[in-house]
Amino acid sequence: MVRDAADGPVRFGKSGPEGNETAVHTEQVYAFFAEHYDHWAAALNVDRGAWADCHWGENLMLRGSLREENLHVGDRFRIGEALLEVTSPRIPCFKLSWRLGQPEQFLGQLIASGLMGVYFRVIEPGSIGPGDAIVREHEAAEAITVLALSKLLHDPTITDVDVLGRVLSTPGLGGQASGMIRKRINALTDGLLMARGRWQGWRRFMVDDVRVEAEGIKSFRLRPADGGPIGGYRAGQFLTVRLPDEAGGHVRTWSLSDYDQQAGHYRLSVKQAPGGRASAWLHEKLPVGAEVEVRPPAGRFVLDRGGFLRTVMISAGIGVTPMLAMLKAHAERGAEAPPLLWIHCTHSGRTHAFREEVDALLDKLPGAVRRIFYSRPEPDDVLGVDYDFAGRVTAEAVAAMLQESYRLAPFGRALELTGDNADFYLCGPPAFEQVVRDALGAGGVNPALIRSESFNPAGAAGAALDTPERSDISFVGSNRATVWLKDDDATLLEVAEACGIDVESGCRMGLCGTCEVGLRSGEVGYVTPPAALPERGRVLLCCAQPLSAKVEIEA
């Protein structure tokens, strides 16, 4: 943001300097230190006179003994008539490097130094003028310093969830810093869940409950026959199940329809498909007490709990099962969960599975919107109560949804966005998914924001990879190492995130190229063919898995 210095006093209201337009990602007031101008002009060999006041985008230029290392989150200062509270360090983006005429690599040097300035929020409005004294009225001496917070935000090796949680609970912490910490906590938690209780190969599970969810749909609760804990999983993943010999020994994958980090069981919800031998056996002959064999949870169609855009879940029929798990994981985010739009299509009330369970969750989410389509409603189905629209989810219905706006406040500042700015999750029959996907594309939705269980770029089908049973993965740039296991079925991006390594990523399907990094040694393959293969010696982490016993990655 380009600003000009004021000759006289400026009034600072609750939203910052009056008449000032802030960027979406900033706090109310950005302060920079006059001494930093001298430091960076010398470090970058720039004529100090070439930088006029406000060149770094600050609202306030401060001079004196205050620095990032002796400012704490929650400290309060009286400057002129206004009372300001420290919230966080500056979190620079590439626009600053452009402003300074430096390459983007300069941001790494800037972040490492910690000499980036500080954000304040306005506690008591008032005028601030040139030469006003800076008086500390409250020192939050036990809180984290601005310098330490800056290092924590940008140091991917800090992977202790308890440490991050304590910082997150700091009174007065700024919205953008809070969002960054929450995103890392969510990624680390999901990584820990994936690693918890894992096993290799097949494991016997006992059916301890069977429940009818709707016409043709039953849920089966599975507990480990050995009495041990279950393996952790991410919302949206599936189980691979092998039925007993008397059931034909069929191997099938079914989505997990529940999400509970503390649960000691899995829940599978299965529709009896016409002519389906495995599903028919489950529905007709699988009793409580019977045993089946199960491989660890797998799958890359999972909820990203680090986003801040509205989450839109669109399903049809039995496609609701992974969506229900995602809905529960989304609700776990509590007050910081982004807005939610839930869209589901089924024949009628008789086939509407999990209606009460979903409604109870939506009622707990402020601003959540429910839209239920019944393609063949029955006389006792009540419009406006049981369902919202008669008919299928059409391209016209999707287009109307995209034209609607919604509000959110990702970093404390309220925004109004159009419906195409959202994270979309689709699950249903192929024809249904194609109609929705085409309508979203026609409405201008970025394909990188659309995730589904079946979709592959350009219709390409991913071939089964000849991966090893295990591979030693080294992230040489972060000095971290781990072991990849075939049974986990994780991508190299998921492995990196589980190690606490912050890798830029967007689509997670090989479309955007954001996660491309150097491949120092080893061989990799792609579970989903990327839109464009990277050059030799490079790898797209989001859809890659190892093909050799050892892989070294420059991340």
TrEMBL record:
Segments forming domain 2Fe-2S ferredoxin-type: 471-555
PROSITE patterns named in the record: 2FE2S_FER_1 (PS00197), 2FE2S_FER_2 (PS51085), FAD_FR (PS51384), MOSC (PS51340)
Residues of the MOSC domain: 1-137
UniProt-annotated stretches for the region Disordered: 1-20
Pfam families the record matches: FAD_binding_6 (PF00970), Fer2 (PF00111), MOSC (PF03473), NAD_binding_1 (PF00175)
Boundaries of every FAD-binding FR-type domain copy: 200-304
InterPro entries for this protein: 2Fe-2S_ferredoxin-like_sf (IPR036010), 2Fe-2S_ferredoxin-type (IPR001041), 2Fe2S_fd_BS (IPR006058), Benzoxazolinone_Detox_Enz (IPR052353), Beta-grasp_dom_sf (IPR012675), Cbr1-like_FAD-bd_dom (IPR008333), FAD-bd_FR_type (IPR017927), FNR_nucleotide-bd (IPR039261)
Domain of life: Bacteria
UniProt-listed CDD domains: fer2, flavohem_like_fad_nad_binding
Coiled coil: none
Stored PANTHER family: PROTEIN YIIM
Name under which the protein is recorded: MOSC domain-containing protein
